[in-house]
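Annotated sample (chain length 460).
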Amino acid sequence: MLSDDILLEIFDFCSSISSFYDSEDVWDWHILVHVCQRWRQVVFDSPLRLNLQLRCTNGTPVRKNLDIWPNLPIIIDYYKGIDEDDVIAALEHPHRVSFVRLRLTGPQLEKMATVMQEPFPALKRLILLTRIWNGVPILPCEFLGRSAPCLRTIELDGIPFSSLPALLLSTNDLVRLQLLRIPQTGYISPEAMVAGLATLTRLEYLDIEFQSPASRPDRIRLPPVTRTVLPALTMFEFRGVREYLEDFVARINTPRLFWISASCFNQLVDFEVPQLWQFIDHSEDLSQNTRCCLQFRHDRVSFGAGPTTHILESKSFEDFARCIDVNISCEGIDWQVSHIAQALNQTAVLSNMLHLAIDFYGISPEPEDMDDIEWLQLLRPFSSIQTLFVSSNFARHISRALEDIAVVMATEVLPALDMLCLEDQPVSSDHKFIAARWESGRPVTTVNTRKVFEERQVSY
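Output written by the structure step:
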């Protein structure tokens, strides 16, 4: 009784509901085509609108399906291990493959890479991963025939592909690029990486993470005169050595960037990242943050900044809604304080910060042997901070450091401060720092509970 147009609307609705819950899933259109000849005709007359695809995964008879169904786009999805014959059967139709996700061993990667050495003109998403740490073969320079013009997502996890920049020259529609756990054999220099990204005008998310600190530039170069503009990039993640990070960010300009996460390996050297801070300072969105947090863990220290009014809503730093996240991997509270203090003394981004929280996550550190002056060096860059929260683990040490400040210097450290919360640490009115601030006409209100400090944050 229903017309073909109404049937098509109904089928289209079924397709939309399925993709809403799982964009990578293939909806069960094959059930409809088995109902009757008319339904079959309606479905196959609108393959694009109904998003008809053939999914090849564990347990599906790939060669049989490819023979009995029309020439529809192919999804190859073997995340939990692969059947080599089935995967190869699907890859023999490169003009139809739209999605590839493979979890591979070393020999399997070598075999698949050999098959995939011709252009894949319909490929939109490529995800290759391995959990092998050593001996992973390098993807050949002819991988994908150096041409995959429809690619929108590339994710390589533990896969060495030093020739990637050559492939990127053909992927003008790329939106998301993730290079995770890059082995040393897959090292790509900062200048080669930027050259490959230069044509990606639609790239929104970039993640570069190296497997070990052995992957580093062979020498320090002067910043280029002009920077490569990545006009659509909004999110950038990095994990590696600071020399690579410095060289990379000195070569790019990202006018729309609003979120950055940078984690650097411990190299037991002075932690100077002037190019990173210049990169952040020049981003209008990143420089608008007013709330920041320093968090110490057993193996790293993190500086985060963002616009949220609830920076202490959770002790988990992952729950802190931030736009800037800079991590330094090192153990020992003395090293952590020294490194992060040195890093923060190089940036102007702190000039907009109004609220600072100093907290810990995990096992409580024991900073008993630290000189109090180190804590003051950490606080000095925060000249615009109006409210300061210090968790109970550090409260006594911060209090003692402030107490040791000479009276004439009391207004030079944290000059804009008007509220101090040292958790579980009472601060009396005869505390030298507090008394001096009252005498100078720039008083500081003190509290010792997290709740009061959080309420003050909300009032802003």
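Annotation: The CA atoms of residues 80 and 152 lie 23 Å apart.
Annotation: The longest strand covers residues 97-103.
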